[in-house]
Amino acid sequence: MIRKALSVLALASVSAVAAHAQGTMAAAAPAAAVKPITFGIKAGGSIPVSDFSDAAKTGYVLGAQIGLATPALPVTFRVDADFNQFDAKTGTGKGQIWGFTGNALYDLPLSASPIKPYVIAGAGLYTSKYSGAPHSNDFGFNVGGGVKIPLSGFNTFIEARYTRINSNDTNPNATQFVPIYVGVSLL
């Protein structure tokens, strides 16, 4: 099911980019008013890095988000809820990480193209559960970037973020991974 969802989202994103590159997209309509609240869903792969990559295989991530546009400011604020799952490199164990973060997103003013690159950074609470260990709640942060590809009534996006969860008694090393998402947000 996850592979099918990723395939559909990736196909929509690639189709939009290809149509724009070939000049087949309709002429842009006059600038519309910025919608103050957006909702989105996303899915993708989650790649462990640093010490975490010694113990975990590449996993998957599913998520949802709510965005708040601020027409008076050059940033958008977003609340993300993500679920990451990783299989252990040895044995049959699994690791699950829920992330609840607040983020600031800044659209980069690089071109007049409707395809918009952006940077994102934020912090939040991460709840981790690994096979055979108690769950833990820890603070962490993320930083990354992506591109928004506007379509009629919604945006598709591709995004990657470096995520670092602080260490604790259960996990003496910081957990670090890079989720790579493909998603849609309703305007």
Taking the alpha carbons of the first and last residues, their distance comes to 25 Å
Largest sheet: 8 strands, antiparallel, barrel
Low-confidence stretches: 4-32
Strand content: over 45%
CATH topology: Porin
Derived from helix and strand composition plus strand pairing, the structural class reads mainly beta
Helix content: 10-25%
**Average residue pLDDT:** 83
**Structural shape:** elongated
* Count of separate structural domains: 1
CATH architectural category: Beta Barrel
Q: Compute the gyration radius: what is it?
A: 18 Å
Sheet with the most strands: spatial strand order: 1-2-3-4-5-6-7-8
How many separate helices?
Answer: 2
User: How many E strands?
Assistant: 8
CATH class: Mainly Beta
Describe the structure using short key phrases.
187 residues, mainly beta, Porin, eight-stranded antiparallel β-barrel, 8 strands
Can you describe what's shown?
With 187 residues, this protein is mostly beta strands. It has a single domain (2-26, 34-186), classed as Porin, CATH 2.40.160. Helices cover 13% and strands 57% of the residues. The protein is built from two helices and eight strands. It has helices at 2-21, 52-55, and strands at 37-49, 59-69, 75-87, 94-107, 116-130, 136-151, 154-165, 175-186. The protein has an eight-stranded antiparallel beta barrel with strand order 1-2-3-4-5-6-7-8. It is elongated.
